[in-house]
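Need residues for this backbone.
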């Protein structure tokens, strides 16, 4: 089984004996993890029945059904276990925040991939003492994504307005520059409407970062 660049980046951060993929949909990630020996057992969940059935179908197709557990659930609700790594990917930042908040104490590490509102997710994580250990920026079909490996902590982490949108780890590579261009485009749209000086500062930093392009 082959994963696209986005899910491959997610898989690269998964580890531990107990892993859960929340909002698994097609179930590609947990099945890939088992097939590739990254974990021996995995839990897949979804809030909707049809996606969960898709995950079960993928598990059957690749003969790993008996090495998985499936839950129809909202986030961690009703799952009375703790996990080494929980993956919450392919959803909006607000939804991911809600799932983490309700599931506190049920995971040691998180792998997160927001489809939107990355700034809301980073703010929540830093305000609540989580540590964004790494952030990578896979590109699939010319679209940049962000994938975060997050560890639990206790002390809130300081940040600037720009950090919320650009992250603190700023790789000097073209994938990141593509991500910055996406941030720049939304910052410009916001700025034309509100003239918020913080967005003006963000636009400047985006331009500096994208100018470095080789
Ligand atoms: C776009 S799919 C992403 C699938 C996969 N995680 C990926 O990244 O390719 C999002 C899935 O999350 C599910 N979902 C949304 N909110 C959820 C929640 N609170 N708890 C569990 N699943 C949720 C949706 O039903 C949908 O199947």
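Answer:
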């Amino acid at each position: 089984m082959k994963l696209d660049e986005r899910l491959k980046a997610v898989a690269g951060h998964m580890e531990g004996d107990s892993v859960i993929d929340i909002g698994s949909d097609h179930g590609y990630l947990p099945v890939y993890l088992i097939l590739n020996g990254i974990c021996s057992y995995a839990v897949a969940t979804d809030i909707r029945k049809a996606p969960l059935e898709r995950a079960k179908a993928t598990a059957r197709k690749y003969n790993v059904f008996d090495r998985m557990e499936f839950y129809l659930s909202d986030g961690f609700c009703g799952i009375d276990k703790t996990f080494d790594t929980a993956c919450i990917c392919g959803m909006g930042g607000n939804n991911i925040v809600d799932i983490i908040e309700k599931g506190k104490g049920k995971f040691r590490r998180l792998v997160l991939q927001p489809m939107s509102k990355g700034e809301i997710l980073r703010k929540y994580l830093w305000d609540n003492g989580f540590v964004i250990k790494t952030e990578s920026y896979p590109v699939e079909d010319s679209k940049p994504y962000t994938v975060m490996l997050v560890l639990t902590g206790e002390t809130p982490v300081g940040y600037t307005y720009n950090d919320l949108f650009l992250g603190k780890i700023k790789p000097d590579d073209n994938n990141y520059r593509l991500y910055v261009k996406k941030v720049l485009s939304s910052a410009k749209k916001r700025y034309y409407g509100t003239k918020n000086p913080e967005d003006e500062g963000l636009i400047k930093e985006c331009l500096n970062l994208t100018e470095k392009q080789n």
